[in-house]
Amino acid sequence: MAGGAFEDTEAAKRAHLYEYKITGYFIFSCIVAASGGALFGYDLGVSGGVTSMDDFLKRFFPKVYRRKQEHLKETDYCKYESQILTLFTSSLYFAGLVSTFAASHVTRKKGRKASILVGSISFFLGAVLNAAAVNIAMLIIGRILLGVGIGFGNQAVPLYLSEMSPAKIRGAVNQLFQLSTCLGILVANFINYETDKLHPWGWRLSLGLATVPATVMFLGGLALPETPNSLVEQGKFEEARKVLEKVRGTSKIEAEFADLVDASKAAQAIKHPFRNLLKRRNRPQLIIGALGIPAFQQLTGMNSILFYAPVIFQSLGFGSNASLYSSLITSGALVLASLISMAFVDRWGRRKFFLEAGCEMICYMVAVAITLALEFGQGKTLPKGTSYFLVIIISLFVLAYGRSWGPLGWLVPSELFPLETRSAGQSMVVCVNLFFTALIAQCFLVSLCHLRYGIFLVFAGLIIIMSCFIYFLLPETKQVPIEEVCYLWSKHPIWKKIVGDEPRTEGKSAEN
Q1: Looking at the 3D structure of the chain, how many domains does it have?
Q2: What residues form the membrane-spanning segments (predicted)?
């Protein structure tokens, strides 16, 4: 089978012949690779905490620090409005957006492991530069290096996990990436809570400790095997067979290996995978996997909370320590949600998590908006009871996101692409994801300032749109072998009208 390029009915029947055991080698490989999510998570958590620290603001953003001390009506929502301050956060994601195209080439030609190693080195260098920063230029350059690291890591790790996983547990294994991300966020918020007490250099420790997950990822990456899919793609068939036998814990891998080889034949015929994404047969993967899901994942508003949880809570009247403590609660909820999703996603399916959690998230965003409209913005801090209510509502929102759009935003796209466009497709996923991440990071604080509580209503409206997108366009992919997901499109009531008429011939998938 060729992952969407052939109409091979025999290959379509091979999935039931796949055999596997959960081996120590498989567990080690997946845990080490998933540590790449800690890079992304640590940065998500640490940047918001650092930008709320007085010592950091005094040194680099004194105007923001002075505004933070004010309690005037016109500054309640606008204390942190500074395009340079938000550039500190968003520059990383713009850099990741650009670097993911280089990562696509490395991932396809040199393998998933190579991209993981490159990403860890770049992230390490960026963390060192940020910790040593004496001016804004050093901060931004360091953030760019961090962004390159995230661009490479986010490109390779979800692919690695999906390709190493047996179909029946692929959802849970792929979500190790999200779990690692959430743990990175939790650890970063805990570190921020402690380093905020270390004056005046605590922020340097917060930024510098990003070298730890980068070092773990690099050293672990050296011991990682390449995925069988990538080895076959590179023409290393014997090595691929050995790795597949070792990962699956059985010598009976002929059916799965045959699917990999068939998919590789199609991949070798594709000289321009990005152009191939535009073909009719790849239209569902392009619209759902490369564009829709990664964009919508950011438009939920969740990353605004992750970036700026301490900033948001301070803007809403919480004290410095209280805001960091509240962000600890929300990041802890995110870890719990990831564990829930891992436990049930292969049993309940992707669509149910998307749709059920989407309904909850709409309600929570509306509740936050109504609460702020009634209680906040009058030049005074929020009442204690209202503050507790907001923390609870935001935590519930995090729980809903953390078992749906958070992990599934990486899992589902990694399942959709056939091998011949998988690396290019994942680059598009990361590119679109980071573009909207950077956009939200750059625009959220100014939007909070001008739209006030209305920004949360905007997010609620966007979640309604994205839930409809999932309901009408996404087929269920649970326990479907990754090289056979292509057959879902011809059975889907909408997509079959688009992909069903394009001729597919055995052994011919070259581009026109």
Answers
A1: 1
A2: 22-42, 84-103, 115-134, 140-161, 173-191, 203-224, 286-312, 324-345, 388-406, 427-447, 453-474
